Amino acid sequence: MHRLKDSTKLKLVLKGIETREDAALCVQHEVDGIIVSNHGGRAQEGGRATIECLPEVVDAVQGKMPVLIDGGVRRGTDVFKALALGAKGVGIGRPYISGLTAFGQPGVDKVLDLLTRELSLMMRHAGVTSVRKLDRSFIIDGRRQ
Hints:
Elements: H1 2-6, E1 13-15, H2 20-28, E2 33-36, H3 50-61, E3 67-69, H4 76-84, E4 89-90, H5 93-103, H6 105-126
Parallel strand pairs: 1-2, 2-3, 3-4
Helix pairs in contact: 2-3, 4-6, 5-6
């Protein structure tokens, strides 16, 4: 890892991190950022959803690097959840590509508009005025009942 970092002045961001152990290794090796990703589920059929992996990865890095997420983001509410769980950014590949394929640039613009409006609406419903104010208290974990 250090050899790779020493060979460039660019930031090194690793994609495909899904566990706290791998996130801790990223911190240990001074990676600049992480993208929580299961590569669209193509790598392994029985893996966890990225939104399920996100909290443990965020906890493991302890704010030492930005954590982004991709995979499974289809609505503004998905963006809300990811940001509330600690993601600093959200990848939206499939919706973007669907808009582009169907309607070209206007389709992409519409997808971005819909995601932005849905996120804004969800934030108003939650009573939060800034994405910086989102935290895990806005998420109910149905697994812990």
